Amino acid sequence: MYTTSFVLLLSALVGCASSHGSGGGSKEDFSVPVMMVGGNFTLGGKPSNLAQYDPELRLWVDQFEPHLFVLGASAGSVRALATNRSESGLYDNLYVAGSFDTTCPTCQHQLCSVGKWARKSLDTLGQGLCSSHSDPTLDIAALVLGSGGDIFVGGSFETRVWNGSYFTMANHVARFIGGDQKRWLPLSSEGSLGCTNCLKATVTSLAWDPELAVLFIGGTFDTFVSGHGKVTRLRTPGLAYWRQASGRLHDFPSGSLGDTTPVDDEPTHPQEQDQDRPAA
Questions:
Q1: Beta-ladder partners of 36
Q2: Are the C-beta atoms of residues 197 and 187 closer than 8 Å to each other?
Q3: Beta-bridge mates of residue 248
Q4: pTM to 2 decimals?
Q5: Number of CB atoms found within 10 A of residue 94's CB
Q6: Which among 106-115, 185-194, 260-269 has the top mean pLDDT?
């Protein structure tokens, strides 16, 4: 395997490729957790984006996994992987994010750089993260599963989504609402993250706290841009968090990472601490 970039998922019940038969086998065994890698690499001299490690043959194989394309070229890439158990409980759903739009050179069905691999096909989440007025190949760098079927993705993208009444922008972070709705929305309806000291704001890491229902966000950004265009600098560039209860983005109150002064009280909404702080 020659790898230009990859992300590793240590254990997933997505189907062991060769537990039955030789030479990779023709059946899948979902009882054995396997190691998955995603990225933009070659396997057996051919381009590949997803592969699993066969524990019996001690080989990397990709015969069951999709190959990803960008505008018909075999240049798609995977940058984030996550799993949760399927409704049947027999196998894991594999969520894939990165930079890709289709699974074949001539396909017209656009995935918008994020999809769900459920044993046989890579399916779009909801109606997809991009509209007809958006770039079909979004650059997604981070993916994390929330609670209740929610999924969060982050990157350097700027796209339009339908909120049920009108199109609205989802910049750098987007939330897929699971359950009955199954649609993409901006993380906050009151604005988005921005950057004054870089070319473009980019979210590179996401972490979900299920007990607090808080999404922690890391990346390259230093401002909050309100829906009216007001720009407010963040006290801790590159770090922010979002509370599901309020639906708002929050600034970290403790200042820079070099500030070792302890914070006695739990962080609240920035507007409650400082009227000059961003409200999202």
A1: 9, 52
A2: no
A3: 243
A4: 0.82
A5: 25
A6: 185-194
